Structures are given as structure tokens and as C-alpha cells.
Amino acid sequence: MAITKCKNCGGEMSAKANVCPKCGAKAKRSSGCLTAIVIVFLGFVALAMVAPLIGTRKGEATSNTPSAAVVDPRAKVSPYVFEADDKKDFPKLAKKLGSSWSRLQSVREAAALHAASNEKCDYVEVAEASDRSSKSDIVIFVDCRNGERMYVSESSLGEGVANRFQSEKTVSRESAIKACSDTAKSMTIHPELADMHVWSGSSFSANKTTGNAQVMLNFDAKNSFGVEGKFTARCIFPANGQPPEIQISPR
User: Fold this and answer.
1) Is 96 left (phi over 0), alpha (psi -120 to 50) or beta?
2) Per-residue CA distances from 133 to 24, 70, 89, 129, 169 (Å)
3) Are residues 133 and 91 in the same domain?
């Protein structure tokens, strides 16, 4: 049995006694530990009651708030693309493709969805067979509402190639102006005397849909008699990387 001292008279008494047997004073017990135990216990009880509610609300908030917006590519494609073309409306194409016509619709849809999955395309409005198509490899040109165009071949779809838009194939301004200047200069009678106005007399423009670029470049050149003339070179750079088409006219 645990023995303690009475805080009133100092006599010995049982730790469990409520009254001192010597002086009759009531025992004064420290309630700190007991209070702490009670508080902790009540805290656990409260937590046990609230936790399920918190978990439910958190789960509901998570389910109602998507982590990332996922857009179905089909939602970015005009419904007409999923309607098969009629041979009667495209007699030349039908003749060119022959039995390969049966693959055309599936390639159209796949090409449209391929372009629509790229964030640069806002909405596919057109997806039709290109004149580049052949019986062995159908090619579809896909036009987006924002002016972007992509050529998608049947073979590239089979190989999983990430096709690029025409705007991504456009030659850079610097290289186009230099190439135009060099080509125009080489066409003069005295190239070493030609004065190309690269900085003050040139302009560059590009067509987003076709990917072609155009350079207009002024220059001065002398003829065989030493007479100086003023000219303008117009250079067209195809997006397919072929050499530029150049026209020179007096100004």
C-alpha cells in the first residue's frame, strides 16, 4: 500500500485515503495528471468522430476538381470529317486511288485526330485527300480554323511519326533574305558590283497555312555598259525545302 504524508499535519496516511486519520483533514490530490489524461482521451474521441467527415469532404473535393483538363481530340474535329466521301463527288481521286479508296475514310479520320491532338490546332475544319496521294500511300491535308495546316500520310501514321504543321517548316527570316540576296546577285552581269539593300530595302513575310515564305529585296546593278539600274527581287521559299523561285523586275 502506498504511504504519503498529510499536507495539513504531516502524519502518515494511505495514498488512497480521502481523510487524514490523524487530523481529519481532507486529502488534497493533484489533478494535473488526471486532467491531462482526460483531455487527451477526449481529444482522441473528438478526432475519431471528425476524421471520417474530413476524409469524406476531402475525397469529394478531389473528385470534383480534375487534376488536368483532358480534351477528347474528336471534340476538336468537324463532324463532317467522320462522314465518308462519295466517289461520285471525287471522280478523279476515285480513279487515282482505285481499290485504295476503301482505306481513304479511315486515313482521313486518323489524320484529323492526329492534327487535333496537337495544341497548335484549335479545331479541324477540313481533312481531305491531297494530290500527293497514291494507291500505296494516301496523304491527307488537315486545315485548322486558326490557319494551321498539316499533311499527314498513311505511312507516317503507321510509323507513329509526329507530323509537323506547315508553319513549322517555314524558312527563317535571316536565311531567306541571305539566300535571296545571293541568288539575285549571281544573276547580275557584274555580281561584284551589285549593291544589295539587305538592311534598308528588304521585307519578309510567311504564309502560316502553306508554310511558304516570301522575300522582297531591292538592289542596284550595272549592265554591260556600266549603266546602273534599280531592281527588285521577289523570292518565294517553299516549305518543302526546295530552292527558292526568284523573279527580278525593274523598280
Assistant:
1) alpha
2) 113, 33, 17, 7, 20
3) yes
Look at the alpha carbons of 100, 103, 109, 115 in this order and tell me if their dihedral is positive or negative.
Answer: negative
pLDDT at position 59 is 47
pTM attached to this predicted model: 0.68
Q: Rounded to a whole number, what is the largest CA-CA distance in the chain?
A: 142
> Mean pLDDT throughout 159-166?
95
Same domain, 105 and 180: no
164 and 192 both lie in a single domain: no
What are the pLDDT digits (tens) for 168-187? 999 999 999 999 999 999 99
Rounded-to-integer distance, Cα 134 and Cα 44, Å: 76
- Between CA 64 and CA 61 the distance in angstroms is 5
Of 101 and 37, the structure prediction assigns the larger pLDDT to 101
Which of these three, 147, 168, 189, is where a domain ends? 168
